[in-house]
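Researcher: Sequence of Methyltransferase follows. Predict its structure.
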Amino acid sequence: MADTQTRKRRGGGRAGAAARRGSAVIDQMPWNPPINTDRPTEPLDQAGIEAIHEGAMRILEEIGIEFYNEEALGILKEAGCTINGDNVRMGRDFVMEMVAKAPSKFTITPRNPDKTIEVGGKTLLFGNVSSPPNYWDLEIGTKVAGNREMCRNLLKLTQYFNCIHFAGGYPVEPVDIHASVRHLDVLYDKLTLTDKAMHAYSLGKERVEDVMEMVRIAGGHSHEEFEATPRMYTNINSTSPLKHDHPMIDGCLRLARRGQAIVVTPFTLAGAMAPVTMAGAVAQSLAEALCAIALFQYVRPGIPCVIGTFTSNVDMKSGAPAFGTPEYMRSTQMTGQMARYYGLPMRSSGVCAANVPDGQAVWETSNSLWAAVQSGTNMVYHAAGWLEGGLIASPEKFIMDCEILQQIQRYMQPEITATGPDEIALDAIKSVGNDGHFFGIQHTQDRYTTAFYQPFLSDWKNYEGWDVAGGIWTAERAHHMFKEIVTSFEPPPIDDGIREELEDFVARRKAEGGAPTDF
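Model: Prediction complete. Tokens:
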């Protein structure tokens, strides 16, 4: 135990040193997860909330959800649900009783306790892009399959930017690593290149068990310490419409029994996998999420659970997913109302359908991110780096998105809307009078370095100044910044003994074959 405590101290985060390293390339804002000070946008009146709730409950009671997991079926049968083959129908009283057991707020403590995050309440957390199979950057200039080097570089951006608060899944799939051991290599990279909250894919028991053990080792925790509070989380998707598959439910059950956090996010595309009407799509999404949360609460009452939304629409001309649309924004706001109705923290996403980091990518992602703000979202997945509906990860897009995230963080700082005597500034106004200016007065001089948001990527020169400086477009500036960051990157400190223990674990599990695959 004493050795464990020593290792935990030595493996700590040193957030201040990380911030100083960050200033070598850009002068970014400090680590400070924003508090959403705005009232949420609520498009539904009380009758609308009740109508969507009623729709979700009737789906669960009259239609049911398919659970392709024998253990889950047995648990839900024991709980009194109606089982017919794989179909599960559950009464609203049971669902609401179980959901009420989930906390409205909880923390996740990574290996660096300085990077602990609070999930719920008014806290707004941003995560990196997760799970694209492909990669694009300005130097390559085309879509290519992801590899480990690309994945590691995106993890470096995840660690580098203070406005990224948790590490999601693989920021790009490293398909050059065999699927049986991919999780071992990538989790080793994540745990040594970052010290932020970790994610586990619920894709087979071996992957989940391996990741939990690696997170435990990286934190220097005993098994009891690991299970005493959430140290990591998973995110699962239902298989819409109205299905939950075996591996994701299995993974969540394993995490729940060890006290780790669970995010349940149905992937409901209106017009394809859900009704074309947004109210119908939201009701279906809620039903798919609530039944799983009810299962996990029955297994371990009080386990932290987050309700996710990934409700958007398809292009009715092609069937392709669309993101950052007015419908996406409204469905996110509506789900935010329903999350508050159920007393659950909420997850949404920063997403777009654009193929390259262009104007479309920015406006669709900005719409998605501001919908997250408006909805009262707590965890924003894919907040930086997402392209082509989740099929491409891009470092330029990652950096462009971080500019938006910093602006949201600045937007939420209370000093902007402070109304004390210094802010009303009557003496300053009186000293300038009717024919002066405010540039040179003391009130301005005392505040000019912190008065306004200072971008790290935007170029505020006029056209002539921009042209003389090379006429560099935004994505190109982001590309140069990406290269500087990864070249100068210093990983967060980790105890040598912990690193060796992680290496030994990875080597042993590889020798044992890792996770089974059919190829």
